[in-house]
Amino acid sequence: MTPEANNVIACRGGDRTALEPRPVPEAGPGEMLLKLRVVGFCGTDLFKLDTGAAGPGTVLGHELVGEVAALGDGVTGFTPGDRVAVPHHVPCGDCLMCRRGNETMCETFRENLMAPGGFSDTVLIKARAAARAAHRLPDGVPDEAAVFMEPAACVLRGVDRAEIPGDGVAVVQGAGSMGLLHLLVIKAALPGARVAAVDPQDDRRELALKLGADAAAAPGDDARAAVAGLSDGAGADAVFDTVGGAGPLRAALGLTRQGGSVVLFAHAPDGQAADFDLNDLFKYERRILGTYSGALAEQARVFDLIASGALDPTPLVTHRMPLDDFQTGLALVRARKALKVLFTPSRAAAGD
């Protein structure tokens, strides 16, 4: 049954937001309308709020699990009441970028296929996403796991591009929600790999060890010693930087082996330039890789890893709260008192 009102978290300029009512979208041909079950708060959402990049009226949020409320003409494979995980970006499949394996650089990929956005009681999924990227959840997969499909696919794309051997050594810089998700995805995709987590906070290093890290260390000398211990002194096959900036990049290069890779998975401060010895890259065949989002292949593989139980990201969820409490969740993330915050429907939509 389609709800009568749609409460959304609307950007008001800068980092200001407000809960406001909007009309409920209608599902057109090929589209589906989802009632929100859970939506994850992402580092990209935080970046857009902190930088004021989201214009007034924008509704952020894209890590979505919803329940089918209505289906447009021509939609098959789903029925009202199904739980669905779906990403907001889908490539065209035909352009040069798609043909060369750079689907996330496709201009069509950049279109947001959720209207108005995930931080809404109801979300319209446009036809391309409904047809090519929506996944109906099996009964045994909880919402709290499926909501990680999109961010975990972004991680998996970087893991693939790094070409880590099955018994290789990886380092994750930063043990926040995305850093720990890197740890879990690497362990799920490459069970024989050894992973070190690097973070200045004791509690986050302890959590990384509980989640399967083979070592956890503070940045600097401790990190270098930990990586040397895992790699017989050679250095890491790949370092994943989830912190961002010139300093973390230099540190990451210092942890790699000759021939190793650094994967950038975080925004740097606007306009900041890299500063490192180019000969350390050239002479020792190191690579620096950028990775952006996840394409259909990574989304499908991550969904299979979650459905099989090989990937269980639910320990990263620290808070659940209704959309009404969006500012509370935002404050927890900014204060580094939360890992993953999930928002649920507004109190009005939930009948509270």
Provide structural commentary:
The longest helix has 14 residues, at 149-162. Helix 5 (149-162) crosses helix 11 (296-308). This protein is of the alpha/beta class and 352 residues long. The two termini are 18 Å apart. The strands form 3 sheets. Strands 3, 4, 5, 6, 7, 8, 15 and 16 form an 8-stranded mixed sheet that branches. A 6-stranded parallel sheet has the order 11-10-9-12-13-14, with helices on both faces. It is built from 13 helices and 16 strands.
Q: Kindly report the name of the CATH homologous superfamily of the largest domain.
A: Medium-chain alcohol dehydrogenases, catalytic domain
Largest sheet: 8 strands, mixed
Radius of gyration: 20 Å
Beta fraction: 15-25%
- Annotation, overall tally of beta strands: 16
CATH class of the largest domain: Alpha Beta
Kindly identify the CATH topology of the largest domain. Answer: Quinone Oxidoreductase, Chain A, domain 1
**Roughly how many Å apart are the termini?**
18 Å
Number of domains: 2
Instruction: Assign a percent range to the helix content.
Output: 25-40%
* SSE topology string: EEEHEEHEEHEHHEHEHEHEHEHEHEHEH
- Runs with pLDDT <50, length 5+? none
- Per CATH, which architecture of the largest domain? Alpha-Beta Complex
